[in-house]
Specification:
homodimer, 81 residues, mainly alpha, Cytochrome Bc1 Complex, Chain D, domain 2, 4 helices
């Protein structure tokens, strides 16, 4: 399915290959797809709090369901070294 | 430092080696330590919402700062296959 167009946006915090450069920003690579999908939908609906939820709410607000599905699948499939 | 005594409690949902058996429960193995630490402290302070936050709040309420530090370090150090 190739790399979703929005990946560079995520990579700015979550790292090029989904491995974050900051100890307080979670890695996404190889994470459970359903968890990523639920988290993005929760952010989109402002249903998540804690950590960087405020910023993630703002980002997710612009994501379509298709974007969310593509990003969740992309990161879940990324190999962790 | 060996395996923290509370690990079996976490493993019931997050899996024996921190790799969850459910697509909607996040893997913990190899996750960023600071992120795990912040998340547990946020759950302990009821500062997180979304996903299984309600259940995690209940669990984290019983964790000491030392428990949280030990669990975060333990799971961050777990290799992801």
């Amino acid at each position: 399915a190739g790399t979703p167009a929005l990946v560079p946006l995520c990579a700015s915090c979550h790292g090029e290959q989904g491995i974050s450069a900051s100890p307080i920003i979670p890695d996404l690579a190889g994470q459970q797809q359903g968890y990523l999908d639920n988290a993005l939908h929760d952010y989109k609906a402002n249903q998540r709090q804690g950590g960087s939820a405020a910023m993630m709410n703002g980002i997710a607000a612009h994501l379509s369901d298709a974007d969310i599905a593509a990003l969740s699948a992309y990161y879940a499939a990324l190999k962790r070294n």
